[in-house]
Amino acid sequence: MVIKHQVVGYEQFVEHMKQYTKKDLVYVYYCGSKLPSGESWCIDCVRAWPVIEPKLSLADESAHFVYVECGDRAFWKDMKCPFRKDPSTKLMVLPTLVKWKQPEKLEGDQCEKPDLVEMLFSDD
User: Which portions of this protein are annotated as coiled-coil regions (predicted)?
Assistant: First the structure.
């Protein structure tokens, strides 16, 4: 089964990602931070997660899956948000699911489409 990680905030994200090399297969899921209820403030992220989570079983068992909480609504909406400015992320919308250092990317409601999520995880 894929190796799961969870990071909160930009600084923790940057530090966590330093451990991976180009040879590592890493998927990154960017979403809004969780509220006390345990769900993200981002309703699109709430809808996407039940589609993404079961499809993780399709990923190579040596792959890493990094769940990134990108901050609260105000932090994310700020156009100077470091997730938006970082050339390695280039985030425009939440949720976003990417294959790290690869061109494969699903954004927004694409993350709610089981066939697209399946293709991303099973495409080697």
Answer: none
Residues 72, 70: Cα–Cα separation, whole Å = 7
If 0-12 CB within 10 Å is exposed, 13-18 middle and 19+ buried, where does residue 64 land? buried
Q: Give the total number of structural domains in the chain.
A: 1
CATH assignment at residue 95: 3.40.30.10
The 10s digit of each residue's pLDDT in 11-45 is 999 999 999 988 999 999 999 999 999 999 999 99
Q: What are phi and psi of 47, to 5 degrees?
A: -75, -35
Structural domain including 53 reads: 3-122
Query: What pTM value is reported for the model?
Result: 0.94
The catalytic site residues sit at 42, 45
